[in-house]
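Submission sheet (multi-component)
Chains listed below:
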Amino acid sequence: MAENIEFELVTPSALVMSEAAEMVVIPGAEGDLGILPNHSPLIATLRPGILDIYEGGKSMQRIFVSGGVCEVQPEGCTILADEVLTENEITRASAEKRLVKAKKTLEETIAHAKNFREVNDAQKRLAIAKELMSIAEKIEKGS
Amino acid sequence: MPSLKDLKTRISSVKSTQKITAAMKMVAAAKLRRAQENAEAARPYAEKMNQITAAIATSFFGIEGAPDMLVGKKSNKVYLLIVCTADRGLCGGFNSSIVREARRIVEDLTSRKKTAKLLCVGRKGRDNLKRTFASDIIDTYEGIGKQGVSFEEAIDIASRVADMFEAGEFDVCTILFNKFQSAMTQTTTPQQIIPFNNPQTTAPEKPDNSGSDAVYIFEPDEEEILADLLPRNLSVQIFQALLESSASEHGARMTAMDNASRNANDMIDGLTLTYNRTRQAAITKELIEIISGAEAL
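Outcome: structure written.
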């Protein structure tokens, strides 16, 4: 399979990655999506999870995204992510710290939130932290 | 005629001012480079975001029950103006041009019997606008972009704006900022952010080979994506404006300080010339006195 798709990963502060890949597995809001060349146009929201980039039949790079949107065209795939962490950047200690902080913020927001959105935001943050934690644990077991 | 001593103190004070302005210029130049890099790094995200939102938006136009943030409310009586200025002065016409434009817009709105509300970003803008529109200013954000503009700061402002929109406090929101063109020129740009300004409906249809007119599959459905996308798009647009504004500020300051250093240089030259002339005159006078004294004997 010689065909590749142009894969782009963008965050608000930088273009993280722009390269050709054989397949990209995206953590879609309603389940993982494997994007191959000539995929029909698609717009999907992402859940916090691992982004898998395949080259030569095996996973070459795994990147954590905290959420965002992706747009797929037959020739390429663009991901607009909120936050991106490569596997090396994820450590158990930092994930734990984040989880504790997210839990605390959620409690505080529920205690004196002015509106629904604030609670929603805090819940989202907690979900991201939880996912990051489970990934950190997996990495630890693997290595 | 100022005395020699006066001239000497003048010269040394101008010299120390020049040192300060030269240092400020260097600092501004370094900050400008960073701000410019940041602004450029953020551009692909903003462009893509706009494209995706536009792609979804087109399928929503003219449909009953489309979100207000996208198509706008029925009334357009209350306008919210976000004014991006700097926290600090000494940057030439940077702040005053924004304030002038803001004043013009508000006066225009009042003359058309609309209400204007102001949200100031940066202390200078607030200080200036407070004199005439004190009652219209809702709030001021200070210290934005001190360590470079972060996306969190933009989200902060965006969620505040979204809350106000949902509470029905305004109908149309425009952000006013200095768009960075070069270190010498910045253009004041008003940009409408609520309701969503669709480039495909405002700009003439241009041939697009990226295939953005393709029919998309949506997952989950359009409404859910849109509900997620619109606030995100709002933050991105505000973020972009803040970045541009911060780059413009440093550019304007650099140019202003460069001019100031050059003016100081001219002034030192002029003062040194007067100083030397005065000194020469004093010497000549003394000589004449001595000679005429000797002659009189």
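Remark: Residues 222-296 of chain B form the longest helix (75 residues).
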